[in-house]
Specification:
With 293 residues, the protein is mainly α. The chain is built from 14 helices and no strands.
């Protein structure tokens, strides 16, 4: 009723009750977001409305697995080297005929993205061409380039030139990016080993991967998540909802991996069902609307 809607706190509690009841009964939930909330959500999902899109498009393009059609190692090296040169040329000239690189160079210029971050990211992609197993040092270097600097590039966009805010949230952004990547590694354990003969986790024999090894990895990821969450609460309002939703999704995936026996992780890809993704979205939206993020 209109009277209920005018009482905002009571209305929000009622919405929370309806959502919780529907989810508990496995009833499909359709969540319609306003324009502002939708834009904030896609900040973390690589949607078409945000300034972070060029980074997600570049990540998809430069992933070495994208070059899988090139069967010879030297061909993959050539393609990656050419892509690096094209990237730097696009940034230097301020334009590119490649639409992805053109969008990327514009974001770099508009938000003054540190070139050192881009260098580190591209260097990590080179590691994928040759590495099949990682030492602790190599693992940390790869995480830095493939995940932590991506978090920093996104953070530069989120804070929009506020250097003090960037410095305050820098470590949290790196740890959150690290957690996301490590969850991906654990989820894709089978695919990386079977398809690429690769293992990212140091000092872990995948052929002898057991619950103890899994727990060591999960403990490390949980520490990253805890540090990352601290920063999410201090993000600008325009980014908070989207990043928090991404955090909750990856946390849900980690919980599922934690409950999955190590033998099953080695034999099948663990995923979060769509109805649980909707649950994550709905609960995150309610928390955002209740101003408890």
């Amino acid at each position: 009723s209109d009277d209920l809607k005018r009482n905002v706190p009571l209305y929000r509690v009622w919405c929370l009750f309806e959502l919780s009841h529907a989810i508990s009964k496995n009833v499909p939930v359709v969540l319609k977001l306003g324009t502002l909330e939708n834009k904030q959500l896609v900040l973390a999902e690589g949607g078409t409305l945000t300034d972070t899109n060029p980074f997600y498009f570049l990540l998809d393009t430069v992933d070495v697995e994208t070059f899988s059609f090139a069967t010879k190692p030297e061909d993959k090296e050539y393609l990656l080297d050419k892509f690096k040169k094209d990237t730097y040329e696009a940034i230097e000239m301020g334009i590119s005929l490649n639409p992805i690189l053109n969008s990327f160079q514009k974001a770099v210029k508009d938000f003054r993205i540190d070139m050192a971050l881009i260098d580190t990211f591209l260097e990590s992609m080179e590691m994928d061409l040759k590495k099949t197993a990682y030492t602790r040092q190599g693992y940390e270097q790869y995480i830095l380039g493939s995940a932590e600097v991506v978090g920093l590039m996104c953070l530069q966009i989120f804070v929009n030139g506020d250097q003090e805010k960037y410095n305050e949230l820098k470590e949290s952004a790196m740890r959150l990016g690290s957690a996301f990547q490590k969850v991906n590694f654990l989820r894709d354990l089978k695919a990386d080993m079977d398809g690429l003969n690769r293992s990212y986790f140091p000092n872990v024999d995948i052929h002898k991967f057991d619950d103890e090894s899994k727990q060591q990895i999960i403990t490390e990821i949980e520490a990253d998540f805890n540090r990352g969450l601290e920063g999410i609460f201090r993000l600008p309002a325009t980014a908070k909802f989207g990043v928090y939703t991404a955090y909750k999704y990856y946390l849900r995936l980690l919980i599922k991996l934690k409950k999955t026996p190590s033998m099953k992780i080695k034999s099948a890809r663990v995923r979060v069902p769509n109805y649980q993704k909707m649950d994550v979205l709905a609960r995150s939206y309610v928390r955002y609307q209740l101003n408890i993020l």
